[in-house]
Structure prediction request, 1026 residues.
Amino acid sequence: MSARKSGGRRGQRVTARGGLQQSPRRALRRGYAPIEVIDAEAVERIHAASLQILERLGIEVLLPQAREILAAAGAETGANGTRMHLPAELVMQAVASAPAEFTLHARNSDNDLRFGADHLAFCAVASAPNAYDSDGGRRAGNRSDYRNFLRLSQYFNIVHLNGGYPVEPVDIHPSVRHLDCLADLVTLTDKPFHAYSLGRERNLDAIEIARIARGISAERLLAEPSLFTIINTNSPLQMDGPMLIGIIEMARHGQAVVITPFTLAGAMAPVTLAGALAQQNAEALAGIALAQLVRPGAPVIYGGFTSNVDMKSGAPAFGTPEYVRAAQIGGQLARRYGLPYRSSNVNAANVSDIGQAAWESSMSLWGAVMGGANMIMHGAGWMEGGLCASFEKFVIDCDLLQMMAEYLQPVVVDDDTLALDAIEDVGPGGHFFGTAHTQARYQSAFYAPLVADWRNYETWREAGSPDALQRANAIYRRALEEYAEPAIDPASREELQAFVAKRKEEGGVPSDF
Amino acid sequence: MSARKSGGRRGQRVTARGGLQQSPRRALRRGYAPIEVIDAEAVERIHAASLQILERLGIEVLLPQAREILAAAGAETGANGTRMHLPAELVMQAVASAPAEFTLHARNSDNDLRFGADHLAFCAVASAPNAYDSDGGRRAGNRSDYRNFLRLSQYFNIVHLNGGYPVEPVDIHPSVRHLDCLADLVTLTDKPFHAYSLGRERNLDAIEIARIARGISAERLLAEPSLFTIINTNSPLQMDGPMLIGIIEMARHGQAVVITPFTLAGAMAPVTLAGALAQQNAEALAGIALAQLVRPGAPVIYGGFTSNVDMKSGAPAFGTPEYVRAAQIGGQLARRYGLPYRSSNVNAANVSDIGQAAWESSMSLWGAVMGGANMIMHGAGWMEGGLCASFEKFVIDCDLLQMMAEYLQPVVVDDDTLALDAIEDVGPGGHFFGTAHTQARYQSAFYAPLVADWRNYETWREAGSPDALQRANAIYRRALEEYAEPAIDPASREELQAFVAKRKEEGGVPSDF
Prediction:
């Protein structure tokens, strides 16, 4: 049975086979104007500064092929042979060919996602080296946990796509890890997914797996983005070989590229927000320009990840006031160029510290959603500044994401909802619970939480005073029980298995391990 | 030594006598446009519906004096003798005389607060019947806890005023409770405060205590609002005697009145948000109109508290998507009338469930701050839908409030902050930590949290894996140790003591207890 069948009709809260009550699958749009932290003039100053950085200081481009593409478009090569100076015109002309919106296709077309404008989608946590749940504690990433996170991504309607391996399965040999992981991704889920850019062969394998999973031709795949990659530039101002290959191969195949400089203010970027954002902008524009030079119109997303470090320890901090403002200014910059925007739901709390995780995540989410982000990475499950993926945090985040989704639903103001008749019927001093107006609507009137516990103190105490971590543990286990693997076309499955087997026989990808 | 002296210079982070590091005392302004959840036409529809409610259905006014004031202004008395039908013109003309902004004076003028426009101030938790900390557990409100909460309100710069007794000290006899509590408020703190409207004598006692504490004349007090009261109408559409007396006496003395209907959708208001808000608006406008009829220009604040109930149990829920949207639409309505706006930092989590408390509070805060609230009640310490004031939550909230305050600080974009020279000095692949640009700014560049713990997993684990609740416990105890009673003019103190003694001798206020 397809998990999709439990998704229910739009606008209705659903109970999957009598199981957990979760929000329905639905496309999200942010109907509210995004928050503008700085004025248009300040946006222009950051824009101008970043163009100046790219032209005067330049950026290290550590791949001959990429340098050739940039030089052919008019970039100057620096004295060291790898520094490229990008004229403002080159950058702006290239960026102008990027689409303002595009659709990312899933093998189940019900899960296709639109990026750009006010569209909004949430990704699962990605790339954590460790996994955690309160029973098993913190452990190194492994395939069992990896697969369980994928099942949660598939199960929860509010998780729209996977943005990388939720946890790194280090028990799979690196030479074939991408093959097993991608095969899991396209069989345990039928939502859009991400592929790491760790060398040309891995990119090409991922593109082929996406094509097989969708059962389409290479020509059609070229026109229909069906996977994405994230490029975190080596800030400051450096792009290494695998990053550049990722941009080139993915763009060449019409697949989506997200350029997200990792500009931690005070470490890899200036300590001042404006400077960190100017640098973020320079790096993002450079990567996007390269993608557009490879294939004008290739789908790209402007990524922002600027945060600050804890100046006491040098540790990265997330969900801080600096992070929130940077996320929202990042949105202003992306809109300046008419590009889709990526932000994140991040925090720096340690594994069992759900309180700090909750407030830092909430800050990040408001920064992202009201910053106008279209793709929100690490939406569910991220802890410890990315060093750990938590099963409990995954479902707590699903609650937060569902709340944000519900918050974005339009408030209808009409005769029916103004309810003047009901107010008159009830009259001063009365109670609305029993009225026909209430009875007709109460089951779906309000958001029903996943984890929040609204029992009164006495009842909650009798139940053993369960806190959010404990409740979330029970919920994630139940979600795994209720998970059903989505249907896949048998021919696609067979082709996929054959491809993975063949590539493994060939030895996968050479690795240093 | 005055706690004020530890406040430090504006814009600087301060360490109070080598103690806790907290944000500086500063006046807050929201430089960002508030979020508009509904369009102007929908605002007008709610406005029109609420005027229709007041004119056609009317509102129960359970005090002859109030009915006389309304009737003299043109209201019709209903057949039952207590229902008043308020013509739209009456309401709108009266509301038009309310000031868009006013200053609430503290006995320490450094703590004066401006309400209206984009000014923003945070209150401590108010009116909880129970107190909690993780050592002592949950207990009935008492004076010792009451006084400790006041000390925390005074200690933390981010708490701008007290909005009622943080916890109800039931160990003080009700006939004299207000005298002891108000005396504590004006001696343990020197910030603005609230007085309950529980009968004329209590209102008058509070007004006199505010006058004594400030050492000013009655005439000056009339021109300088120095305390405020909150009126929670008996929703739906009813105001009882003490509420109406509170409005009349406070307005008559030029003191601030906050009208906050308690419109829980599905219980005391329609299950639909638009209807609940139409009713909230009707009740708020009725109370504000009465205040203005008593004294045109009397300072008033439009209060919004619309939330929803858990339809499974009937329990109030807070920090929900419905709450957030209602808070932000409430701001749109208040701005429609050019009135200052009050919202709240609320949640329904049980005492030790800091995770849920954190995410629900965060949602409430974003609703309030970006809804354009000027006064945010229950800013620090509220738990359990208001049934419990928590010492740990108090300092966690201070962290959240400090973060929101820091988020609202303008991002400067100029040559200095764009840091092009630093970016060039560091160059591609370098590190910013050691640069002069960083070194000159790192100490104050970023928000320093109170409770958040950014240590890495290993260090945090070696320290005993303290979660937010445990860390907050240590911090609130330290704040109490560091607290210093603010200086008070000896003449004022003497006059205050004499007044309280005299009123106690007179038996305080008759009570039913």
Notes: The longest helix of chain A spans residues 273-294.
